[in-house]
Amino acid sequence: xxxxxxxxxxxxxxxxxxxxxxxxxxxxxxxxxxxxxxxxxxxxxxxxxxxxxxxxxxxxxxxxxxxxxxxxxxxxxxxxxxxxxxxxxxxxxxxxxxxxxx
Length: 102
What we know:
The protein is an alpha+beta fold. It has a single domain, classed as Glutaredoxin, CATH 3.40.30. The chain contains three helices and five strands, in the order βααβββαβ. Strands 2-1-3-4-5 form a five-stranded mixed β-sheet. 29% of the residues are buried.
């Protein structure tokens, strides 16, 4: 298997019971998944996008983690936010505006 250059983990608030109840899901994380995948592909970025269970930072959701950089982004609520994160990634940098940990 070829390892992708980047792996995006998008919190989708799934809990042990399987119900998506947390902030990330309620703030629209599922609707951003398709855009993130399509925009990454349009830019020619080699990425894998996965949803996760709750990442336990609900107050700052939706949360996206980018590996291997280990960038943790919070309050990623719009397609424009995704664009800014991808722009920074293409420049080899973190997007400071949404960065909550690195």
